[in-house]
């Protein structure tokens, strides 16, 4: 399984990522080991989607980082 996940950063921003090991990746975010989020720890895992393969996960991650994808995510995953 692959996961598309949504983190709430300490500055209130939302981060979208994808991984095949959600527990490990979340721990690395919390530990400040991820360059794009290390200034904004602690982070909170708000939601995630499980999909069958990496291709679909990367496609969804890209979509949720777009304007319309962000709007949909805000309504559906942490409203």
How would you describe what is shown here?
The structure is a single chain. The chain has one domain (2-77): GIY-YIG endonuclease. The chain starts with a strand and ends with a helix. The radius of gyration is 12 Å and the shape is globular. With 79 residues, the chain is an alpha+beta fold. Helices cover 39% and strands 27% of the residues. It has three helices and three strands, in the order E-E-H-E-H-H. Strands 2-1-3 form a three-stranded antiparallel beta sheet.
Q: Say how many strands there are.
A: 3
Q: Which CATH first-tier class would you pick?
A: Alpha Beta
Largest sheet: 3 strands, antiparallel
Shape, please? globular
> How far from one another are the termini?
26 Å
What share of the residues does DSSP label as strand, in percent? 25-35%
User: What's the structural domain tally?
Assistant: 1
CATH architecture: 3-Layer(aba) Sandwich
Number of H/I helices = 3
- The helix content, as a percent range, equals 25-40%
**Which residues sit in consecutive blocks of at least 5 with pLDDT less than 50?**
none
Structural class: alpha+beta
- Oligomer, anyone? single chain
Report the CATH topology name.
GIY-YIG endonuclease
Radius of gyration of CA atoms, rounded to a whole number: 12 Å
Characteristic key phrases:
3 strands; alpha+beta; 39% helix; three-stranded antiparallel sheet; GIY-YIG endonuclease; single chain; 3 helices
Fold topology:
Layout: E1 2-8, E2 14-19, H1 22-30, E3 44-51, H2 54-64, H3 67-77
Antiparallel strand pairs: 1-2, 1-3
Compact description:
39% of the residues lie in helices and 27% in strands.
